[in-house]
């Protein structure tokens, strides 16, 4: 059993934050998006990982080597971003005939991983959405068997969006379908969607079953990223996994996650705030926000904001989305 995690995307919807930081390494609830995914799979017993890297891939490599020094893993490079189907196709030599669990690198979901892995047939994670036109969509029968899949349909016949989690037992058939897809014309935007290969597998008689995730957070946008951070912080608090340290003249409104080495004075922090390591905060009010590592904030009121690593912010109340190595003086 191997896990494939594609993390080669540029994260354009989170710019300028992702100009210098891979989307998968953005902090949420005291971890990163990538570590939330990896830890979830590790807890289910998966120990062999294949990471598809590309944009800022060296940072992904350093992070995995430092955070998971004993993890069995392989890095596969996607130099040209040609879609998820192309990314998974590149892993064929690293995976061969092993069963695979595929989790897209910006997808955080609440589901029972062990139940999925114990299934006798391949599984696709789905979630009901109000407007499925922006997603891959699965059409299901009354037993939740997949009957058809379409990528971003103009007129959807189902509101079950595929969340980016796949358990594939028939890996040989999967790579054969991807190979045929790669030899044919790409989709309109020049990408090869994994949905198209799955549909081909379905047409060749491979059974696919849909399982519903309890919660799904597509961390590709600022709003969903902050929402994910808040929900995971509350979950950690309910499980007593958060210990708030004491700081000089500072009030914390839980849940909050403060990394090591931070200096915080005369501030009100929370609720739903994640602060990276070695950040300095003085005379600030911060709520519903994510603050990167080695940042410095003075005399600010921030709400629903994302501040990158090594950023400097001073003065005034705003809602911000600031990339790494940024200096702002609003005073």
Can you summarize this structure?
The chain is an alpha/beta fold and 331 residues long.
Give a written overview of the molecule:
This protein has 331 residues and is α/β, with parallel strands linked by helices. It has two domains: 2-220, Spore Coat Polysaccharide Biosynthesis Protein SpsA, Chain A; 241-329, 3 Solenoid (UDP N-Acetylglucosamine Acyltransferase, domain 1), CATH 2.160.10. Helices cover 23% and strands 32% of the residues. It contains eight helices and 28 strands. The chain has helices spanning 33-43, 57-67, 84-89, 92-95, 113-117, 171-183, 194-203, 222-238; strands spanning 2-6, 27-28, 31-32, 48-53, 72-77, 100-103, 107-110, 122-128, 136-140, 146-151, 160-168, 208-212, 215-218, 251-252, 256-258, 263-265, 268-269, 273-275, 280-282, 285-287, 289-291, 296-298, 301-303, 306-307, 312-314, 317-318, 321-322, 327-329. Strands 5-4-1-6-11-8-12 form a seven-stranded mixed β-sheet. The mean pLDDT is 87.
**CATH second-level architecture of the largest domain:** Alpha-Beta Complex
Shape: elongated
Which regions have little confidence, pLDDT < 50, spanning 5+ residues?
none
CATH fold label of the largest domain: Spore Coat Polysaccharide Biosynthesis Protein SpsA, Chain A
Percent strand: 25-35%
CATH secondary-structure class of the largest domain:
Alpha Beta
The structural domain count equals 2
User: Which range best describes the helical content: under 10%, 10-25%, 25-40%, 40-55%, 55-70% or over 70%?
Assistant: 10-25%
By DSSP (H or I, 4+ residues per run), the number of helices equals: 8
Largest sheet: 7 strands, mixed
Quaternary status of these chains?
A: single chain
N- and C-termini, Cα separation: 55 Å
